[in-house]
Amino acid sequence: ENSNRRTQPVGTRKPNGWGLHDMSGNVWEWCWDRYGADAYATENPVTAVRDPAGPKEGEYRVYRGGCWIIGDVYARVARRNLVHPVYMDRFLGFRIAKNKE
User: Fold this and answer.
1) HSE-up of 52 (CA within 13 Å, CB side)?
2) pTM of the predicted model, to two decimals?
């Protein structure tokens, strides 16, 4: 009900619980990470990698965050998927971010 079943202009929909707009559910977002099937796999939370970048080489990239087309069950920041880097669609975009350094 927040999306009207389409991509929305930035900042025009309801914010999340922290007051941030468009963090998930508007469009899937490309990530810098390459996809690695075992990048997040661990049975021991002590040795789990926090925010792993995936392998140094690979054919697929990661996208995350969910979008309006698949419903709110999958519209969450932790949701990650893979796709070939030449793939384009109206529900896949990117977020510009600046490194602190």
Assistant:
1) 16
2) 0.66
pLDDT tens digits along 15-30: 878 787 777 777 888 8
Q: Are 32 and 25 spatial neighbours (Cβ–Cβ below 8 Å)?
A: no
pLDDT in tens, 30-82: 888 888 877 766 665 665 666 667 788 889 998 887 787 776 677 777 777 88
Q: How far is CA 38 from CA 41, 44, 62, 91, in A?
A: 5, 14, 13, 26
Nearest Cα neighbor of 62 from 77, 47, 43, 42 is 77
CA distance 66 to 26: 7
Q: What span, in angstroms and rounded, lies between the C-alpha atoms of 82 and 28? A: 11
Q: Which two tokens stand for residue 54?
A: 């995936």
**Radius of gyration, alpha carbons of the chain:** 15
Can you name the residues that pair with 64 across neighbouring β-strands?
29, 80
Amino acid found at 16: N
